[in-house]
Amino acid sequence: MLIDGLAAWLAHVPDVRLTGWAASVAELLRTEPSPADVVLLEARLADGSDPVENVCALVLRRRLVLVVSAMPGGNLARRMIEAGAGGYLTKNHRLETLLSKVRELAEEKTACPPGPAAGHTTGRDCARPVLSPQEHAVLLAYASGMTLAAAARSAGVRPGTAKNYLERVKEKYRKAGRPAYTKLELAVRLREDGLAT
């Protein structure tokens, strides 16, 4: 009923379409005809799968994830965001809010690249933070040995903006349980996550 309602509503939205649905993340990854720009994920699926592991499975396959749940936020929402979900909306939000967030995520394209991150998980959480293309560009330039000013020029941003990006990157690594405070530590994280090339 929910899927039918969503499909009917989106039929009148020219720039967003429902490309498919599945009862589990495993089924989605097995049957989707092509990767969706954004995956809407229910926090608690009927198969009893772990919500955070579901986010990790999607993020590690370069999917952008928006969690939509009947449950209010809290610790689970925080853990899903830390695992890489691009947002967490409760079902009492208006459909326009859902559309706005879907568009925002599709434009940012902040999925983390595939690679060896599965070997760097801690507990049940995905330990590779999701970096925006701008954050990745500044991090790559800075960790390669450039000064902050040179990294900013390389990424096409102002030094103050580059500094803000690096602070966000450091915070994301801290939340993932893999703090990196120095240029050397950031370079190590890039290599660990296969993001250095």
Automatic annotation (TrEMBL):
InterPro entries assigned to the protein according to its UniProt record, in alphabetical order: CheY-like_superfamily, Sig_transdc_resp-reg_C-effctor, Sig_transdc_resp-reg_receiver, WalR-like, WH-like_DNA-bd_sf
Gene3D superfamilies: 3.40.50.2300, Winged helix-like DNA-binding domain superfamily/Winged helix DNA-binding domain
SUPFAM superfamilies on file: C-terminal effector domain of the bipartite response regulators, CheY-like
Domain of life: Bacteria
Keywords annotated in UniProt: DNA-binding
Domain Response regulatory residue range list: 1-106
Protein name: Response regulatory domain-containing protein
